[in-house]
Every structure is written in structure tokens, then in C-alpha cells.
Design a protein that fits this description.
Helix content is 3%, strand content 42%. By secondary structure, the protein is mostly beta strands.
Length: 151
């Protein structure tokens, strides 16, 4: 699976820290939109995928999340806990089903390679408890959106 990891080096001093998130030259496609979400511990968002080629760059700005990715063709999975204790950005090809679980209350940012079109959304779903991934989550009773409940 071609999920790319970008460790975020923190440069710390008495004021706090600074980290470069990403350089456009390191990405396979240019980013076109930035999205921000806040989730309570126990929330699962996803799994979603995009048929028309939107890719996502995930970063947890505060707290911890578990990112889960499923290659729908092969069944191969990828998972990593990212955030305060593991400052990493993950580039996820959107053809793979992807989502995250809030392991703590968290603030999560995802930068995407296509702008969202509400009149023709490229949003498709795989249930969070699909047999290929259900063992990867830390919860068996997540807080879900109506859309994710019906996936």
C-alpha cells in the first residue's frame, strides 16, 4: 500500500515548538483544500474513499487519533496512531478506504487534492466494522455520524 509517512520534526525552545508540516514538492499531487475537524474521544470518521482521485494528507494537531486505511482491492490494511505522541503526517491515496478514530479529544486536519463539490460529491463509504478492519479500532461501540452509520 502506498501510504506515505512524513515525520514532523519539532524544533523546541522555551516558547514551545515549530514544525514544518509539508513541502509541496514532496507530494504526488498539489493540495487544493484544507479541512479541520474536532472530535470527542470514541468518534470514528470513515471509512471513506474517492473514485475520482482525491488524496488526503492527514495530521492530528492536538490529541491522538488512529488512522486506518484499507486497500479495497487487496484487503491490505495500514494503521498508525498519530498526534501528540507521534507527530507524523500521512498522505493517503483516496482510492483506499480511510478514516480515523479519536483516541482522545482531538483536533484533526486533512488537506486534500480536490475541492469538495456538494453538487457531485466523490464520497463513498465502507462500514467502520467491515470484517477486514474492525479489529484495528480500539473501540467496538464508536460515536458515528448518520452517514457512517449507514455505510
Amino acid at each position: 500500500m502506498n501510504v506515505q509517512r512524513f515525520p514532523l520534526t519539532r524544533h523546541e525552545d522555551d516558547r514551545g515548538w515549530f514544525s514544518e508540516l509539508i513541502r509541496a514538492s514532496a507530494l504526488p499531487k498539489p493540495l487544493k483544500q484544507a479541512n479541520l475537524s474536532q472530535s470527542r474521544r470514541g468518534v470514528i470518521r470513515g471509512l471513506h474513499y474517492h473514485e475520482r482521485g482525491q488524496d488526503d494528507l492527514f495530521v492530528c494537531l492536538a490529541g491522538m487519533v488512529r488512522v486506518v486505511v484499507l486497500d479495497r482491492a487487496t484487503g491490505e490494511t495500514f494503521t498508525e496512531d498519530i498526534g501528540d505522541d507521534n507527530p507524523v503526517a500521512l498522505y493517503v491515496p483516496g482510492i483506499h478506504a480511510h478514516g480515523y478514530e479519536a483516541l482522545t479529544d482531538c483536533t484533526f486536519m486533512y488537506l486534500v487534492t480536490e475541492e469538495y463539490d456538494a453538487s457531485d460529491p466523490d464520497e463513498h463509504g465502507v462500514p467502520w466494522d467491515d470484517e477486514r478492519v474492525r479489529h484495528l479500532w480500539s473501540t467496538s461501540s464508536p460515536i458515528l455520524s448518520a452517514r457512517d452509520t449507514s455505510s
